[in-house]
Amino acid sequence: MSSSKATPTDIYLERLALETQDREERYKLLVGDLDKHEMASLHAALGGHSESNNEGNSEDNSEGNNDPAALSVGRRLALAYAEPPLAPPEALATDASGITRLRTAPTMKRSPLAPQKWSTNPFVNIGRRFKRWANGDFRRRKRESPSASWKWVASRRRWVLLVLIFGQSIIAANQMRTVLPGQGLQWLEVTILSLFVLLFAWVSAGFWTALMGFFQLLRRHDRYAIDSEVGDEPIDDEARTALLVPICNEDVARVFAGVRATLESLRSTGNDRHFDIFILSDTSDPDIAIQETYAWLGMCRDLEAFGQVFYRRRQRRVKRKSGNLDDFCRRWGALYRYMLVLDADSVMSGKCLTRLVQMMEVHSRVGIIQTAPRASGRLNLYARMQQFATRVYGPLFTAGLHFWQLGESHYWGHNAIIRLAPFMQHCILAPLPGKGSMSGEILSHDFVEAALMRRAGWGVWIAYKLEGSYEEMPPNLLDELNRDRRWCHGNLMNFRLFFSQGIHPVHRAVFLTGLMSYLSAPLWCLFLILSTALLAVHTFTTPNYFPEPGMMFPVWPQWNPMLAVGLFGVTALLLFLPKLLSVVLVWIQGSRQFGGPLKVLASMVLESLFSMLLAPVRMLFHTRFVLTSMMGWAVQWRSPSRENSDTTWGDAISAHWSQTLIGAVWAAGVYVMEPTFLWWLSPIVVSLMLSIPVSALSSRVSLGRLSFQKRLFRIPEETQPPRVLRRMVSLLTRMNTGMSAPSFAQVAVDPVPNALATALGSSRHIEVEPIRQRRAERVSRAVLMGPAGMSRLERLDFLDDPVMMSQLHYHIWGDSKAHYSWFEQGLPGRESKHLPTFS
To answer: For this UniProt entry, which segments traverse the membrane (predicted)?
Structure first.
């Protein structure tokens, strides 16, 4: 607006003409007879109104008088999107005030949701049971299904599992006792022995789970698989399913490439009419929020998906992901029979989605069916090794979990279908009572929702053989540890529900395994510290050969290195035999897509060595996570990285210098006390001292590509990618190079982006004087301060409120005191911000 000749209305029409598709309409804007003596008249003329009409209808159109720019929203959009139109008439319409609005969600059908209070005190629960029994009101657990033979089978299997775990642990404990110099009689040795038993039982549980999974997959047929009785039955028209994609400050291109690939795959099956997709955003960054709306509009226009793909961004972001699901259930849950929850990096084939609905239709007492997602899509060396591990070893553990749990299985929070009616009735989460870091909103909601679903009598199953479900792994060690810190805090909180009333014993065990998956780290750390302390005691103190008074013969300390080697070998066998069995299973089923028989074996060996290097590093990090969570330190729940990002040397040093120092000091101390013992401890201390280069180098994409060329860590999803993944990658490449969305300043200033933002605004307020005055104050302040003077929360409020966004646009152009940065940032050259197409 530096030209002395051009008026604001002239510049405004020039900018609008830049976006106009029709040449004749562009000519009329530039040389036509529009009323251009002021901005209000211009907007009225664009909207087909006159000042006399506005004055005569002041009572009926009070919104228009207070918001002149709103009158032209529809015209601005029609000029920019003439052919094809921005949206069909059912999606783009006018509200009661005559202002153009773009419909982003279906009509609401509200349902009341009421979470039940938690009862976590075991003594209170026992007292209540005793009181019911004393009053003659004690009833046995209700049987959900009269012919559920799987329950008896599952109960018998679990008793066998307990016998195997504890029997094996007792034998190992006896061997460990003979290894200790005092035969396990000293207090320090008793503590070490107790920790060993607990940790060995944890290793044993994983071993027997993987072993039974191996036999389950080897024989192929499973009469208790959830899909064993399901054919290709047509889906009932009433069985509508909502695909929910909760997101928060995610990589927009990756999210919508995955959603679009999933929808296209679903349409190829011919069953897409049974599904709707909801993008449920909790994004707090205004620029990312704008990108989300542009990506949603572009996808709907390309695929003609208005009325099938919806977008909602919450203004009140509570309870994180579970709160987003609650919000959907409260507004639209009554319209659907099922919901299928996806993560931001999830991709699912149409065949897989259809199969899940068919399973639900056949099994009327099933509440949740969890798929076994396959990891793919990463290029970093670290992520490729993790993808290989989950693809080769993961099926054994997933099949083993199904073998022991059957209809009382895990739910991992995504890539799973849920029956909505019981979920809405029984699985809405109340905050944990009390104060401190272990109370308040439940963070890891998935295990809890599965436990509540089972408590209500509905089955929770794993469809471990179902193909077509995919996810992505963290690209490097630091991103994985950042995720683990969140999960650690959530699992520690969940264990408070271990004694909650009515929880099935299997799901109590799930809470326990969730706890042990992180608590095992500080236990291992304590075990190693006490073992080192025991060495120090025997090195620096005089042995007591007569520990009890009156003894005639001395008790000589005995070290049994051969027994120690044998015990170490047994433990290593429990840890690594499942990996070897996984390779054997790949050989039997065909190893060509894994790089060949020798390559898959070499990949397993290299991955195992790499896991050994990382185990002590993870141990120290997880120990710190447990301690900081229990001490109440805040945890930032940021979205994980969706990029193939390398770890810089600076980040690696910053994250791992303390582990390196601990390893060096530990090794030096043990060498001073007993050099021979250092050989036993070398896998731990050497790994810690190498943590910096291992973390940095393993994150390299270049090394990941090199390993791919050498056919190492290959998975079928890389060798022969499924169609839905190929389409996702193609869309992601095109979106990363072709997708462009305006900034907040451009949305406020540029005529067409502002019209889009105004039409998308979802806030609705009764027009009363306090609200009108508050809006005027905020708009006036924003105009004078410029975009840099607005906080992220203020920008989000403007994006949510169509009236404030339109008024801001009007006053920026009409107020001579408007901050100069609005036009510097809001009109960057003559680039167009039309919605891109990726058809």
So the answer is: 159-180, 192-215, 518-541, 561-588, 600-621, 677-697
Can you say how many angstroms the Cα of residue 723 is from the centroid of all Cα atoms in its chain? 24
What type of residue sits at position 478? L
Mind giving me the DSSP string for 212-280? HHHHHHHH---TT-TTTT---PPPPTT--EEEEEEESS--HHHHHHHHHHHHHHHHHHT-GGGEEEEEE
CA angle 311, 314, 320 (to 5 degrees): 110
Query: pLDDT for 1-45, tens place per residue?
Result: 444 567 888 888 888 888 888 888 888 888 877 766 788 888 888
DSSP secondary structure string, 443-506?
SSHHHHHHHHHHHTT-EEEEETT---EEE---SSHHHHHHHHHHHHHHHHHHGGGTT-TT--HH
Quickly list H helices, 278-393.
286-303, 320-332, 350-362, 381-392
Which residues, including other chains, have CB under 8 Å from residue 37's CB and lie 6 or more apart? Answer: 9
Averaged pLDDT score across all residues of the chain: 86
Closest CA to 500 of 151, 117, 158: 117
- What pLDDT was estimated at residue 183? 61
Report the alpha-carbon distance of residue 146 to residue 149 in Å, rounded: 9
Q: How far apart are CA 461 and CA 154, in angstroms?
A: 12
Give the span between the Cα atoms of 642 and 345, in whole angstroms: 7
The reported pTM is 0.88
Place of tokens 């109340």: 430
CA nearest 590: which of 764, 772, 741, 716? Answer: 716
Q: What single letter denotes the amino acid at residue 334? A: A
**DSSP string over 83-106:** TTTSS-TTTEEE-TTS-EEE--SP
Of the candidates 572, 570, 471, 464, the residue with the CA atom closest to the CA atom of residue 214: 464
pLDDT by residue (tens digit) across 764-802?
Answer: 666 788 888 898 999 999 999 999 999 999 999 999 999
Strand 347-348 to 469-471 pairing: antiparallel
The whole-angstrom separation of Cα 778 and Cα 766 is 17
Radius of gyration of the chain (CA): 32
Closest of 617, 624, 622, 625 to residue 686, by C-alpha: 617
Calpha distance 512→497 (Å, rounded): 10
**CB-side neighbour CA atoms (13 Å) of 572:** 11
The tokens of 626 are what? 């447990």
- Residue 205's nearest CA partner among 157, 169, 176 is 169
Count CB neighbours of 269 within 10 A. 16
d(CA 68, CA 181): 88
Q: Which of 379, 449, 365 is nearest to 414 (CA)?
A: 449
CA–CA dist 610, 594 (Å, integer)? 19
Q: What is the pLDDT of residue 533?
A: 81
Range with the poorest average pLDDT among 467-476, 493-502, 577-586: 493-502
Which pLDDT belongs to residue 21?
84
* Segment 154-195, tens digit of pLDDT: 999 999 999 999 999 999 888 888 777 666 567 777 888 888
Phi then psi dihedrals of residue 728, to 5 deg: -65, -45
SS3 label, residue 143: coil
Q: Which residues have a Cβ under 8 Å from the Cβ of 578 and sit 6 or more positions away?
A: 206, 207, 210, 211, 214, 393, 396, 397
SS (H, E, C) 33-54: CCCCCCHHHHHHHHCCCCHHHH
Residues 6+ apart with CB under 8 A from 637: 320, 443, 486
In the chain the first and final C-alpha atoms are separated, in Å, by 38
Positive or negative, the CA dihedral 726, 241, 93, 770 is negative
Q: Above pLDDT 70, what percent of the chain?
A: 87
Residue type, 25: E
β-pairing, 309-313 vs 459-463, is: unpaired
